Amino acid sequence: MADHIRIRRLGGVWTVRSGGAVLGESTNALELSEGDLPPVVYFPREDIAMAMLDPSETTTTCPHKGTARYFDIVNRSATLKDAVWSYEDPHDPVAAIKDHLAFFTGDLVTVEQI
User: Can you give the pTM of this predicted structure?
Assistant: First the structure.
């Protein structure tokens, strides 16, 4: 793994919400820390309501993690374009995030420990 990337399992129960709906809740969340960037919580795909996510055409590439695929969140109040990403075939050093989803957080999406 690149020296500036760390992945650790988070304790407790973690949740992600958008538009008044709970998109997921997990006791198996991971935290990825990368250099000076804020840590990102990754949720196992099986703990997320995938019916609320629509695949996007967007992809990006990270030299350390691989190619990210994006999803839109569709809830009662809005469609949040490219609000979720996943490394479906991550590079070996970060293989722990395979089959996990991460969320851009802010006013419309929250990730928190409950």
Answer: 0.94
Backbone angles phi, psi at 93, to 5 degrees: -65, -20
What count of other Cβ atoms lies within 10 Å of the Cβ of residue 23?
26
- Tens digits of per-residue pLDDT, 41-86? 999 999 999 999 999 999 999 999 999 999 999 988 889 999 999 9
By the 10 Å C-beta count (0-12 exposed, 13-18 middle, 19+ buried), 41 is classed as: buried
- For residue 57, which phi and psi values (nearest 5 degrees)? -80, -10
Q: Which domains does the chain have, with CATH numbers?
A: 5-113 (2.170.150.40)
pLDDT tens-digit map of 79-110: 999 999 999 999 999 999 999 999 999 989 99
